[in-house]
TrEMBL record:
Keyword Lipoprotein listed: no
Domain of life of the native organism: Bacteria
InterPro entries membership: DgoD-like (IPR034593), Dipeptide_epimerase (IPR034603), Enolase-like_C_sf (IPR036849), Enolase-like_N (IPR029017), Enolase_C-like (IPR029065), Mandelate_racemase_C (IPR013342), Mandelate_racemase_N_dom (IPR013341)
UniProtKB keywords: Isomerase, Magnesium, Metal-binding
Mandelate racemase/muconate lactonizing enzyme C-terminal domain sequence ranges: 131-222
Taxonomic lineage: Bacteria, Pseudomonadati, Pseudomonadota, Alphaproteobacteria, Hyphomicrobiales
Protein name: Dipeptide epimerase
Family matches, as PANTHER family: D-GALACTONATE DEHYDRATASE-RELATED, ENOLASE SUPERFAMILY MEMBER DDB_G0284701
Source organism (scientific name): Devosia equisanguinis
């Protein structure tokens, strides 16, 4: 009954260039986790994020250091106190969920006590760029049911206007990635409202959250960098209208489920989001889709290649029915 833990860093090329307010990248490094018991192998994936002080090397070391405890019988429940919320715990937690499901021959939705939809509509991300380039990118993606615009730099009013002119009927959400200033926020939110934007994600640095309680929310505001795990969730009420639940922040599906349920109880709407990563990250996140008003699980679409056995994407709809990678 010994459980064997393995993990390694893997690199995936980005399809072109992915740009947000904090910078650009042409590749993404993830950590793949593998658990094996009685010949049954299950996988998990996590994305160490520099914004939260994580690196792939340190995350890998943290994961591998837990190998002896897992071999000695540490399970998914005990994992929650063995590691704090973050990428390392996420990779192991998701691998545990898959291992449990495979050993039991059960659906993970059944194990989680909820409906796990086979299909769901996802947002598609338009990277931060010039107004003209973003308008062109939006036109190319106009068939997608929901576009997510990366903003957070000087010239955002022009970017928003250019995109709306290019795709007048598209549903839009905006992600500023902490790139706006308190003084500029009323004008930017008003412009978003005029453009019919449904949601503005993390407009201010997390350290400026208090300001959001003192202004009119012309558009609902969603916490991302300000929303991590269960701890601190209550402090977001009155400042945010929604939270972006990401497994790399909660430290896995186990706490993400608790976060989603608590957020609902607090009256916060839910976006299920992701880091730039493969279907091995999207599949466990998709378990939360039933909670979500917005699903943003387009990570594999932004990579040059996904993993085999992953999700199918067509016209902004995710289909997990044929996925063999996880679960």
């Amino acid at each position: 009954m010994t459980t064997i833990l393995r993990a390694e860093i893997e690199t995936f090329a980005v399809a072109g260039r992915f740009t947000i307010a904090r910078g650009s990248r042409t590749e993404q490094r993830v950590v793949r986790v593998e658990l094996e018991r009685n010949g049954v192998v299950a996988l998990g994936e996590c994305v160490p994020y520099a914004r939260y002080g994580e690196t792939p090397e340190e995350t890998l070391a943290t994961i591998l250091a837990l190998g002896p405890q897992i071999a000695a019988g540490l399970d998914r429940t005990q994992l929650q106190s063995a590691l704090p919320p973050g990428a390392a715990r996420n990779g192991i937690d998701c691998a545990f969920w898959s291992l449990e499901a495979r050993l039991a021959g059960a659906d993970i939705g059944h194990l989680a006590g909820l409906d796990w939809p086979e299909t769901m509509t996802t947002a598609f991300t338009i990277s931060l760029d010039t107004p003209e380039a973003m308008a062109v990118a939006a036109q190319k993606a106009a068939h997608m049911p929901l576009l997510k615009l990366k903003l957070g730099a000087a010239g955002d009013l022009e970017r928003l206007a250019a995109v709306r002119a290019a795709v007048p009927k598209a549903r839009l959400v905006v992600d500023a990635n902490e790139g706006w200033a308190v003084a500029d926020l009323p004008a930017l939110l008003a412009a978003c409202a005029d453009a019919g934007v449904e949601l503005v994600e993390q407009p201010l640095p997390a350290s400026d959250d208090a300001a959001l309680g003192d202004i009119e929310h012309a558009v609902p505001i969603c916490a991302d960098e300000s929303a991590h795990a269960l701890k601190g969730l209550e402090a977001l009420v009155g400042r945010y209208d929604a939270i972006n639940v990401k497994l790399d922040k909660t430290g896995g599906l186990t706490e993400a489920l608790a976060v989603a349920r608590r957020a609902e109880a607090l009256g916060l709407s839910i976006m299920v989001g992701c880091m730039l990563s493969t279907s091995l990250s999207m599949l466990p996140a998709s378990v939360l889709a039933g909670f979500a008003r917005w699903v943003d699980l387009d990570g594999p679409l932004l990579l040059a290649h996904d993993r085999p056995g992953g999700l199918r994407f067509a016209e902004g709809v995710i289909d997990r029915s044929g996925a063999t990678l996880w679960g």
